[in-house]
Model the fold of this input.
Amino acid sequence: MIKTFGILAAILLCAALALPATAADYVGSEKCFTCHAEQFNDWQASGHPWKLRKVEKARYAKLPLPPGYSWDDISYVIGGATKKARFIDKKGYIITTAKDGSEAKTQYNLANGSWSFYHKGEKKPYKCGPCHMTNYSADGHQDGMVGMIGTWSEDGIGCEECNGPGGEHIKKPSKKTIAIDRGAEACGKCHQRGGMGPEPPAKGGFIRHHEQINELKAGVHKSLACIDCHNPHQRAILAKDNCAECHAAAAKSYAASIHGKAGLGCKECHMPKATKSAIAVASYTGDVRTHLFKINVDPKAAMFKTVTEKEKTSTFAQGYLTLEYACLACHGSRDKAWAAKSAKGFHKM
Done:
């Protein structure tokens, strides 16, 4: 009898472990602070918790609102950390017009204080799961608002979205009771567009945003993991300046060049802002650094390719940078022929 009971208990335990984590297993990022204060503070300063915020928090960020709206009309703010902010009304729909229904630009761009159209005039439900929240489920409507598609445990990207539910870890603090995934795909589940394949989609002369994993897999550093350069708890802009660890000879010769003496780092040429999230600063300058790295110095090389399948035309980045993005973004008065000539033996200049 005891043996039978033991077998039954083991079966039930295995079945329980196989079940997906429930909302009750998620304890919220605030619980992590007690033991992980440094990581928690880094995370708070990053853009991750800002991906989605209730109005109670967001209204103190000093963001302007679309025409006619007051904070009493807003339920959530999308973003608002470094690039752009969009606003959600009390029914859960993203605001795409002025309050009176007239045409209006409703996306606020933080870099220059401008406004852009976002799905102008459409009735736009909020269906940005699972990349703007923690523990997303496609079922139901968050806060009972019909425009909110899905439900979740925590607004924004919390600790548990990357490390898994923390309920068991709170009870038994150990590396065995929390998920630690250092692979690029752990970041790529959100930092991608159209899947993790090496075909970064493009539009309007720039790579589209959220595509770091697509760029990484399409480029020469496809074997790297994101954490080789980034601390996942910190802002991306605080990435390690560690190119010389693998490219010592190039780094040494570059340091003696005109650009090196001027204090320009490797990222200025190999990670130019060829990607656009909110605004384009200039013809070949967006607002997000690319992760393609390799520069094709052929003046005839094209940065993008167009593909037509089933009567649908799509544009993709080729997997390398061309001279107009690597060189002419700064040297705007020059042309590709000049850049091609100057790029020969560049690190020894």
About this structure: The first helix runs from residue 2 to 18. DSSP finds twelve helices and 16 strands in the chain. The two ends are 83 Å apart (CA to CA). The chain has a mean pLDDT of 92.
